[in-house]
Amino acid sequence: MRLYLSSYRFGAAMGRLVDLVGAGARIAVVSNALDLISEESRRAYARNVHDPLADLAERGFAPFDLDLRDYFGRPDALDQALEGVGMVWAVGGNAFLLRRAMAQSGLDAILARRLARDDLVYGGWSAGACVAGASLRGIDLMDEPEAVAEGYDPAPIYDGLGLVDFVIVPHFASDHPEAEAADVAAAWLANHGLAHRTLRDGEALVLRDGRLEVVGEV
What is the model's pTM? Predict the structure, then answer.
């Protein structure tokens, strides 16, 4: 299994992501954590602030947008759409919305199967990293669990994908609007004896060949 789980965007060690995935790979960029935000606002943000597809293309990858809403209730179609894809990259936003999208499209089961075969890399930042953890308990102190966009099931999912056996808390001790909430979440998890790892912006967790390490440490 190969993972690249970042606190903020691609972190400070994107070269490690390139090594992990392989040059020229097709990358499916999942932005469903942002489905509460209007398409116009999302396009403006990509144009003026950060465009993950452009950043990945500059690194020699072949990225494309993968909207999981197109595959709700159609896991076989999603499985086919991911043929030949080397990485799924999930951007930040609302972790609970993203987790629902993964469940309703069947991406969670597809990832489990393909990561076990090691023919796909999973990566993401903020919400995209959080959903990889054992649980989203504590993350409800950072994101709104009940947030629902059109077409989504109303009930929040607190189980993570279980790709790592702890909760991931991004934006910890960082210059980020959610840093204070991250501190509260980490304290809550510690008080309840729940295994967790905090990440500062710039840092990422990399898993390869059974070895987990923090890269881009600041």
Answer: 0.96
